[in-house]
Amino acid sequence: xxxxxxxxxHLIVLIVCCGLAASSIxxxxxxxxxxxxxxxxxxxxxxxxxSMHGTISLLATAVISLFVPAIMKKYSYKVILIxxxxxxxxxTILMAFSKGVLAFYILGAIxxxxxxxxxxxxxxxxxxxxxxxxxxxxxxxxxSFSGIAGAVCSPIFTKCIQSFGWEIAYIIMGISIIVLCIPxxxxxxxxxPEEIGLLAYGYNAKEKQIIDEVTKSENNFNFFNVSFxxxxxxxxxxxxxxxxxxxxxxxAETLNYSxxxxxxMLSAGMVGNILSKLVIxxxxxxLGPVKATIIMIxxxxxxxxxxxxxxxxxxxxxxxxLFGSVYSVGAVGFALLTKHFFGVxxxxxxxxxxSFATNFGGAFALSLVGYIYDFTGSYVYAFIIAxxxxxxxxxxxYIVVKSYLVAKKLKxxxxxxxx
Length: 419
Known about the structure:
mainly alpha, 18 helices, transmembrane helix, Transporter
């Protein structure tokens, strides 16, 4: 039996990527919401104004994501990893000593750039290289740890804020970012398993040769075709919905629930984040990424209705849990859809752009949701907008699928002619 495509190394690389996802997304992004209310009140500013530092951070991540493939080709990823992890953790710790919103904006930008170097783009590039079989499940497992970290860290940070103040909580947050990345920093691995004499998990040379004949790389990828443009807009709009999650503690407060209930809602959303990412990968391997994505969007629509009509804190927690499904599409879904629609051979060209779109949408949503509350005194309008976006996204996905099927038919015809 050839162990080059099935080894303990594959499992360890999977675990390493789990730590990176937990740190760069789970702590840096998914746990940030618990700071919005206490810090904005402490500084005497609007929530939207303070949450703008999260917007700036995600925008910085979006921009650096465009250059990640080129940076990874030019420099050793270990060097990149050590530098970026220390900067991300350090900038978060410095937030504890910030007394003005400008400092948070600057540090947010620094953290966004540095965390982007070990976030979803490099993580999915590593998974694409290391996993041929069960690729959807591997992606789901890794990115579910962003939800696990969010679910675990949110109540911990909330308790720290209540007991020691938000300053100490930021120091603990910064240390957490560094600690979760230690396995990736210490363990020796390469981006491509072939560099160390291994093959992707479950690699099948004959099967891959057939696929390569049908989906040859496009040297000059057309970013202005209908399929890509609709997919790009879909990515921006969908991740804009995810900005609501970090405001769930604030939403609970407007309904006269305690900060503890608010933190529990955020944690419930992160648990939903975890499970939905695992589910979407499993469904994708069985039914395909398109059907898996549609199912998750439908669940998100149901969750919004529940949150708007919830008569009790228990129902709010259920709605928050289901709302976590929004992350399954934003993280796992778009990675799988990119590979499905545009091929693994175009992944490093297309996905950084899609990652930019997802971070762009999520970035503005953080502040937009905050300002919607600041100027209306309610989060209801944010939920109504989210419902509208979900419907629009189903239409956009339909257009992308139709365009993809037409293009696939042409490629198959050309492949048959060339055989």
